[in-house]
Specification:
Blueprint: E1 2-9, H1 15-24, H2 26-30, E2 35-44, E3 53-64, H3 67-76, H4 78-86, E4 89-102, E5 122-130, H5 135-150, E6 155-164, E7 168-175, H6 178-187, H7 189-200, E8 204-219
Antiparallel strand pairs: 1-3, 1-4, 2-3, 2-6, 4-8, 5-7, 5-8, 6-7
Helix pairs in contact: 3-4, 5-7
Length: about 230
Amino acid sequence: MFVSITIVKYPRKYIPFAFIAMALHRLPMLFNKKCSFWKLLGCGKNGTFDIHPDYQKWGLLAVWENEIDFDDFLSHSFVAKWWKLFTLEQYHIFTMPLESHGKWSGKQPFGNPKIKDHQGMVAVLTRATIRLNKLKNFWANVPAVANIMASAKGFVTSIGIGEAPFFMQATLSVWQSVDDVKNFAYKSKEHADVIKLTKDQNWYAEELFARFKILKTIGTIDGINPIKIIS
């Protein structure tokens, strides 16, 4: 299984085309038989769950059988041609699932892998549909966790992504090692407290947690490749 995460950046004058793409690109993705799962995504401004969207940055997460299928998509698809015409930058992160729990739109898009012996850099996807009556509590607790994550040992970068504003949110974070992820998740008091709240107060109608091996990256976002050390 080959999972691509693409972030594109539109110039300000083309932001209306970004909104059009969120509707228009659904049809070609739906009919792409080589893609088993996909989500068109908006991006947050601060690299994590973020109530403030970044209207210049948009994303696509897609699951393929292999890299050849993605290469064909990037060379010939309507979506890729749109990106080439209207965007300033494209940044592609190519990954392989190591572990996945939960569901996304009722599916297990990354299967049920359980690869425990991975060494090296790891990407972590945390995704949730937040119950509407829990939105206030959720957003009140996000800033504290976001602030400590950026300074946590082993943290490399993160991207805030989501299917819909406010209640369908995700973060893709990149870490130097699985141990760094575990230390942040379980030894950080702020993060541990929020995780407890999510369970005690039943914040999420649906949630998914997945870890990935980063295979390579292509392109830039904001002029840099934030995980270039593994390219």
